[in-house]
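Hey team,

Filing this mostly as a record. A colleague (T.K.) asked me to run one chain through the structure pipeline before their review meeting, and I want the input and output archived in the tracker in case anyone asks later how it was produced. No errors, nothing strange. Just documentation.

Input sequence:
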Amino acid sequence: MPARAPRTSKAEAPRAWQRMLSGRRLDLLDPSPVDVEIADIAHGLARVARWNGQTKGDLPFNVAQHSLIVEAFCAELKPGWPVKWKLAALLHDAPEFVIGDMISPFKAQLGGQYKVIEARLAAAIHLRFSLPATLPETVEKTIKRADRASAYFEAIQLAGFEPAEARKFFGTPRGLAPITLNAMSAIEAQKQYLARFDALFRALEG
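Output structure:
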């Protein structure tokens, strides 16, 4: 008589966590602040390409460099802004260290579930670094304004957009000095991101 296959009461749930180089195991569906490390964030963001890699030059334009620009733009838009909001600006794309940088048209097609996962990750990251889980609306608006300004300059200098097309999708940056973009290597962007984080976090905890 052939041996019976072992019974399973329930199919094992798909893995929903990723192991980080720090050794942490981050659950995407229920992320804990204790599993968030800035070294993992900086390493990941420096290796995630903006614009799905569709940019000019030998190096991809990475999310860590973009985040540095957004934080600098926020400081320019809001002189004297509290350091905690500058830190929030630097971390505005931090969830992408584990879920990647999906272009806006694809995010729109994915809908609500993507936003839920992204928001949970952002909340865990904020709490890990002494920020409120949810940012005030005025702070979110300033960060978004800086984010769109960076996207405008990236679009026309690196991603092949005509200025009129970039203005249509991202608006015209106002109150900000124009910048010239040169893509950093992953190592340099990671180094600068960590240095800026350390400066802001020390000031916050200070």
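Quick notes for T.K.: Residues 1-9 have pLDDT under 50 and may be disordered. The longest helix spans residues 137-157.
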